[in-house]
Design goal:
About 65% of the residues lie in helices and about 10% in strands. With about 575 residues, it is of the alpha/beta class. It has 2 domains: about 325 residues, Up-down Bundle (ABC transporter transmembrane region fold), CATH 1.20.1560.10; about 240 residues, P-loop containing nucleotide triphosphate hydrolases (Rossmann fold).
Length: about 575
């Protein structure tokens, strides 16, 4: 995102906090006023010391009291200003995280599948935190810094325009230095943020698949890849730190320049106006030297904040880019599908995940109610993709998919998916009790219905052996085996009694005996229901009404098991490969 867009989004995020924002500005004005008045009264106090034995004690005490009150007032208002700015920053952080997390649920699967999970998580967690830190620095130092610069120039002009003019002429040097540092650090911090996210994504992926890494002895190779990514992050970080570290020496040089100019011009003015009606006194010179420090200090702080703020902007850009991503097309106003009969048809369907790589082309299929359709073929031929299209996880590029004569793009996603029951290789369980996991699809079911479904899925026995039976909390590693988790997923589908079923290697984690028992339960479950079965073990789909053989995104053969074997075709080769003597 461009900087203008980022700032626009930041102001939009600050809108709910405009009252606190206004209070912060007023408090900042009070703090700066107190800080600027203190040197003025200190100069008056110096002028009260006329000479040896000649002290205006009354004026001195009044000036010192005013100086003390000004300093105390600045300190008192500093606390609520900091409190309010922190409340704004953390409130915005919380709002952005909620918006970003909510957005993830509305994004199409194409967005999630096309990015590393660790990278997306880094945007929601890490980048949001970096942005919040930069926002706090901006509130605490940017506001007071700008007000101080304007206030000092105003007071200097009111007291001695000559010195104010000198300071004003040197000011462009400060702006040039700040602009150069700001522009350079934004690019470097952006590169650092991207490198950090890349490293976090890889670490997340490796930790999630640590068992696979160890099984294939990939520790050294992954360590080498991590070192490479870490080296990239190190270089990006060093470059960012290098540019941000130029802030201090550059601003100190400008400080010294301003201070020397004020001292030199003020000294000449003090000599030139001595004995005149309105002399430039030693106290006035001390006041101006103090103002010279106060004038340059905000430039130091703003330049230092600029480095952090550029990092915050880079992180904010990634957050707002996520929030601004195009959502899944709304299905508001679409037809609400009731309980489907189970008539499914695909006409001229074409689909690909990326435009340059075609996957499914000219796909046609007609499935009558209650048919058991098996989908087989080599890895990558489009079997799971077909399931994604049936469920409308992805929309087709060409053609259309129909359920009971309705184009599924005209049907609400919720009502379409309620008509499907899915059991995949990957188990879908949440960290909750067995009961809550089983009744997820039918929270209003009775205890008897739940137990009957568990018995049908051959899960009732091991559930009773758990420490708290159906009230045992699962989700922790080691509580259930992979096979037991899959049995719970099967039981959950059996409890819902959907009119259409999708089974994608649904018994892949089960032992042979349990698989045989569950297959028998599936036969009863499938009666009268339209079923799509993705299988690699061809023995499990021998009794299917229709077998679709896919290759390179196309149906190359279809028929019953006996018909396909009789043709001596690709299917017969697959079957022979699995059951060769």
């Amino acid at each position: 995102m461009r900087k203008k867009q980022i700032f626009r989004e930041i102001f939009r995020a600050l809108k709910p906090y405009r009252v606190l924002f206004a209070f912060t500005l007023l408090a900042a004005v009070a703090v700066v006023a107190g800080q600027l008045l203190a040197p003025f009264f200190a100069g008056r106090a110096i002028d009260c010391l006329v000479g040896k034995g000649d002290v205006d004690w009354s004026g001195l005490s009044m000036a010192l009291l005013a100086c003390a009150l000004s300093s105390a007032g600045a300190a008192i208002f500093q606390w609520p200003m900091t409190l309010a700015s922190n409340k704004i920053a953390y409130g915005v952080l919380s709002d952005l995280r909620i918006r970003a997390f909510s957005k993830l649920g509305k994004l199409p699967l194409r967005y999630i599948d096309g990015r590393a999970y660790g990278d997306v998580a880094s945007v929601v967690v890490s980048d949001a935190e970096q942005f919040s830190d930069g926002l706090i620095l901006g509130f605490n130092q940017l506001f007071t810094g700008v007000l101080t610069i304007a206030g000092v120039l105003g007071i200097m002009l009111a007291i001695r325009w000559e010195i104010a003019l000198v300071v004003f002429c040197i000011t462009p040097v400060s702006f040039f230095v700040a602009r150069f540092i700001s522009k350079s650090t934004y690019k470097t911090y952006k590169a650092q943020t991207e490198a950090r996210s890349d490293e976090a994504a890889f670490a997340d992926e490796m930790l999630a698949g640590l068992k696979v890494v160890k099984a294939f002895c990939r520790e050294e190779e992954n360590a080498a890849i991590f070192r490479e990514k870490n080296e990239k992050l190190k270089k990006a970080s060093l470059r960012a730190v290098f540019f941000s570290s130029t802030t201090n020496p550059s601003t100190r040089f400008v400080n010294a320049l301003v201070y020397a100019a004020v001292a030199l011009v003020g000294g000449f003015l003090a000599i030139a106006t001595a004995g005149m009606g309105a002399p430039f006194t030693v106290g006035s010179l001390g006041t101006f030297l103090s103002y010279a420090n106060q004038y340059t200090k905000p430039f130091n702080e703003i330049s230092e904040v600029a480095a952090e703020f550029q990092n915050a902007l880079a992180c904010a850009g990634r957050i707002f880019a996520l929030i601004g991503e195009a959502e899944e097309p709304s299905d508001e106003g679409n037809f609400v599908l009731g309980e489907a009969a189970g008539e499914v048809e695909a006409r001229g369907v074409a689909f690909s995940y990326t435009p340059e790589r075609a996957l499914i082309r000219d796909f046609n299929l007609r499935v009558r109610r209650g048919m058991r359709v098996a989908i087989v073929g080599p890895t990558g031929c489009g079997k799971t993709t077909l399931i994604n299209l049936l469920m409308r996880f992805y929309d087709v590029d060409e053609g259309a998919v129909y359920v009971d004569g309705h184009d599924i793009r005209t049907v609400t996603r919720a009502s379409l998916r309620q008509n499907y029951g899915m059991v995949l290789q990957e188990t879908w369980l949440k960290c909750a009790t067995v009961r809550e996991n089983l009744t997820m699809g039918r929270p209003d079911c009775t205890e008897e219905e739940m137990v009957a479904a568990a018995k049908a899925a051959k899960a009732h026995g091991f559930i009773l052996r758990l420490p708290a039976g159906y009230d045992t909390v699962i989700g922790e590693e080691g509580v259930l085996s992979a096979g037991q988790k899959q049995l719970l997923c099967i039981a959950r589908v059996m409890l819902c009694h959907p009119p259409m079923l999708i089974l994608d290697e649904a018994t892949s984690n089960l032992d042979t005996r349990t698989e045989k028992l569950v297959q028998e339960a599936f036969v009863r479950l499938m009666e009268g229901r339209t079923c799509f079965v993705v299988a690699h073990r061809l023995s499990t789909i021998v009794g299917s009404d229709l077998i679709l053989v896919m290759k390179d995104g196309k149906i190359i053969e279809q028929g019953t098991h006996a018909e396909l074997l009789g043709r001596q075709s690709f299917y017969s080769e697959l079957y022979a490969a699995q059951f060769a003597q």
